[in-house]
Amino acid sequence: MDDAIAHYPREHRRSAAMPLLHLWQEHFGFVSGEASVWIAEKLGLQPINILELVTFYPMFRQHPAGKTHIRVCRTLSCAMAGGLELMENLCTALGIQRPTDGEEMHHPIAVSADGNYSVEFVECLASCHTAPVCMVGEELHEKVNPESAAELLGNRESEAGNQQLQWPPHPIERRLVYKNIGRPSWTTDIDCYLREGGYEQLKQALTLSRDEIVNKVKNSGLRGRGGAGFSCGLKWSFIRPDEKRPVYLICNADESEPGTFKDRYIIHEDPHQLLEGMFISCYALNANTAYIYIRGEFPEGAKILERAIEEARQHNFLGKNILGSGFDVEIYVHRGAGAYICGEETGLIESLEGKRGYPRIKPPYFPAVLGLYMCPTIVNNVETLCNIKHIVAIGGAEYARLGRPNNTGTRVLCVSGDVQRPGYFEIEVGALTMGQLIYQMAGGLRPGRKLKAVIPGGSSAKVLRADERFKLKERQADGSTIEREISIDDIPMDFDSLAAAGSMAGSGGVIVLDDSRDMVWALNNINKFYAHESCGQCTPCREGSLWMQKITDRMLRGGGVVEDPETLKNIGDNIAGRTICAFGEACAWPTQSFVGKFPEEFAGRAHKPLPPPLPPEYTPEELIDKESIPTVPMAHDPGWEKAGAKGTI
Ligand SMILES: Cc1cc2nc3c(=O)[nH]c(=O)nc-3n(C[C@H](O)[C@H](O)[C@H](O)COP(=O)(O)O)c2cc1C
Ligand code: SF4
Ligand code: FES
Predict the structure, then answer these.
(1) Which of 170, 73, 194 is nearest to 124 (CA)?
(2) CA within 13 Å, CB half, 295
(3) How many CB atoms lie within 10 A of CB 94?
(4) Pocket test for ligand 1, best of 237, 252, 384 (most atoms within 8 A of CB)
(5) 47-61 tens-digit pLDDT
């Protein structure tokens, strides 16, 4: 425990609260009341500071689980592949009873009578291409056959571990970050990495000035791969060269956006590439300390990174005076605990400070100005940081030649859902179209099926309908622009084109839906995710996300009323743009776009003429009997009287 505490500055020991909770839970199986008192005392906090974490983060539990705990993914790609049936069959095999009502999807852990097994639904485990997946203890099981769920418990025949990357790469691919992954002779240890030229770019970077590296990154045009697509060089340039406060680098390895599964694979298969990118970035930003915030559901990934950090230390790539450069750097791994909102950079920072993952208001809390411990902090995604190494290797200008103007470099697209060969494909940004991605790389749809819709950038991205026409502006060689009308198949897979098509490239998670899919059901699945993951700070997001879920629940149960599609749209419109963080948009966009683009399906589920004006459990006419609700006389307060209050509340 003392080792864990030493990862954080003495005056910020609170940051160690989550690591200590993980240790406690690993040892005792759950977090007891005694744990809150003990950890609080150890860190100089109040027990409530620990209890608030236990109740906020889904991975911490206050009651024992079974000896073997099974987490089944319930999010869209897994649900489409039979994840819900998997849970049902597991419960039957184990004699576990759990509520079957859709609203109870996240009902607390259910334990078998003999205490040997417990089950729980969890959100996207970042392996959507091998759906359905579940975790048995700490081990990820992929492509589990729902019909033979019991095998998971006995001889464990389902595939465990990572699905291998296709080798050799598809001819349209352009692998940079995934260059080594999947190669027949490739192993993840540092010796293999060094044999293949690893850490040469760190050595090269240490001979350059900080400005030179930042300029290379600026010239490369690299845009963040975590979702927002913000210019990496521009973000870095917000760190003042004469900064007196400590500067921090945080690698965002929270990868929780449904449909996205590229970062976990990098961590598992090429951890030193990420570390090298981070060392170079730390040097360029003059950051002596960096943290890798890795989601709690990646226990194996956390171990791999710890091991890689120790290997790098033995070669003096980190620690004091790295490679004789006079520069000191330390990297620590910090595990999350199951909250999607901790992927949002300010929520992540709060979480790293040992608090609930409540996003901060921007401005003023732009991380580069007021970040970790109110110091300048750069938060970058795993894939973004890996690209830094390649920018140093080939130079910013050369890197910018890959891809398209303003959409440079390569990026990893993750394809899941209704395609024959789901998986990861690294491409030059915009160098292939949606049609090429789906039909040539991902093997097309199942026989006899037609494309219905695509969610192109993680579940937050607006859905695109297969028969839509999109108007895209294209710049000509002479500088003029022309407008082109294209089909979904012709949309180039880059940031600007997908934005022009009314959606976004986001985190690169492409979810494909064929004509067998019910769009009300799909939206309901997505709404459940957001309703569960809202941090609850903002009323429109907290309440609205749940309302959207409950209305689609009602529609699925056959109780939809004619106003429902309009109500759904109104709720979405009243969330987006009215919240502290971009989760508001993330949860509104699916509803707005699904209802807007598939009106016939939503209308088809909304027949009942009588509206309950609010979701079913709130029917004021029935509940509020005016006679029986007493009004309370207002306490005497001259201020209120002056303000003209009527005397009752
Ligand atoms: C609700 C929400 C969830 C997010 N989840 C992630 C995530 O899991 N991983 C990630 O890298 N970025 C995520 N982001 C984006 C981060 O806030 C941030 O923009 C990113 O880590 C910056 O890195 P980049 O510039 O390298 O993309 C999320 C943003 C929002 C609003
Ligand atoms: S928008 Fe939602 S997730 Fe973001 S701060 Fe508000 S309540 Fe939390
Ligand atoms: S792993 Fe199940 S939906 Fe992503």
Answers:
(1) 73
(2) 25
(3) 23
(4) 252
(5) 999 999 999 999 999
Kindly give, in sequence order, each residue whose CB lies less than 8 Å from that of residue 57, ignoring residues fewer than 6 positions away.
18, 296, 336, 337, 338, 339, 356, 357
Q: What is the pLDDT of residue 613?
A: 57
Cβ 343 under 6 angstroms from ligand 1: yes
Alpha carbons 547 and 614: distance in angstroms, whole number? 8
Does residue 131 line the site of ligand 3, with CB under 6 A? yes
Write down the pLDDT at residue 150.
Answer: 75
At residue 72, the 3 state secondary structure works out as strand
The owner of tokens 């963040």 is: 224
Task: Give the other-Cβ count within 10 Å of 358's Cβ.
Answer: 18
Q: What is the pLDDT of residues 93-114, one digit of tens each?
A: 999 988 765 545 666 789 999 9
Q: Ligand 1 in contact with 224 (CB < 6 A)?
A: yes
What does 295-329 look like in DSSP terms, one character per residue? -TT-HHHHHHHHHHHHHHHHTTSSBSSGGGSS--B
Distance 36 CA to ligand 1 centre (A): 30
Residue 346 has pLDDT above 70, yes or no: yes
What pLDDT score does 345 carry? 97
Q: What is the chain's Cα-based Rg?
A: 25
Tokens of 618: 């709130």
Q: Which residues pair with 425 in a beta bridge?
A: 413
Residue nearest to atom 8 of ligand 2 (CA): 535
The rounded distance, in Å, linking the Cα atoms of 346 and 209 is 29
pLDDT digits (tens, 9 = 90+) for 449-499: 999 999 999 999 999 999 999 999 877 778 788 899 999 999 999 999 999
At residue 641, does pLDDT exceed 60? no
583 lines ligand 2 (CB under 6 A): yes
Q: How far is the CA of 145 from the centre of ligand 3 (A)?
A: 15
Tokens 């970062």 correspond to: 263
Residue nearest to atom 5 of ligand 1 (CA): 343
DSSP-derived letter for residue 16 is: G
State the Cα torsion 37-42-48-49 to the nearest 10°: -150
> 3-class SS at 251?
strand
Residues 241-265 as b/e (b if ≥16 CB within 10 A, e otherwise) read: eeeeeebbbbbbbbbbbbbbbbbbb
* Ligand 1 binding pocket mutation candidate from 249, 265, 344, 378 (most atoms within 8 A of CB): 344
b/e map of 464-493 (b: 16 or more CB within 10 Å)? bbbeeebebeeeeeeeeeeeeebebebbbb
- pLDDT higher than threshold 50 for residue 645: no
User: Cα–Cα distances in Å, from 400 out to 173, 233, 312?
Assistant: 17, 12, 30
Distance 525 CA to ligand 3 centre (A): 12
The one-letter amino acid code at 223 reads R
Distance 574 CA to ligand 2 centre (A): 13
**Which amino acid does the sequence have at 526?**
I
